[in-house]
């Protein structure tokens, strides 16, 4: 019997000077980076929460607490690979992921394909199963004024029993 499950993930991080901007595992040239315990990859964090939600694994705060020094500065793609391993332990397979970055700047269009490929590689799935898109919020709110970035992700998984 095939069991389909959907999960939604959301994450937000403040932009700050003195940090690299990492989105979907890609270092993007920009004068600010995202503040966080790990590399603060807001896009990958949303994807992880969508997957962990679908598989009933809790969330990334539970799995990778920001109080644990082992995760300080870690690549979020490494954490995503661990989420993939946990999914496999539960006989779960990723059907597809759709993720949206909310940011006024910088423009990420040239990097979206690499982001999708990085996410797919970490999960050992076909890149055709991962979609990454971005939008501005027309200057509104914390993403619009450039003080932070957010991301949403939806993931569909299947469990074969």
Automatic annotation (TrEMBL):
One of its GO terms (molecular function) is metal ion binding. It comes from the Bacteria. The record marks 37, 136 as: Transition state stabilizer. PROSITE patterns: ISPF. It is an enzyme of class 4 (lyase). Keywords: Isoprene biosynthesis, Lyase, Metal-binding. GO terms for biological process: isopentenyl diphosphate biosynthetic process, methylerythritol 4-phosphate pathway; terpenoid biosynthetic process. Its cofactor is a divalent metal cation. A divalent metal cation binds at residues 11, 13, 45. Homotrimer. PANTHER family: 2-C-METHYL-D-ERYTHRITOL 2,4-CYCLODIPHOSPHATE SYNTHASE, CHLOROPLASTIC. This is 2-C-methyl-D-erythritol 2,4-cyclodiphosphate synthase. The lineage of its organism: Bacteria, Bacillati, Bacillota, Clostridia, Eubacteriales.
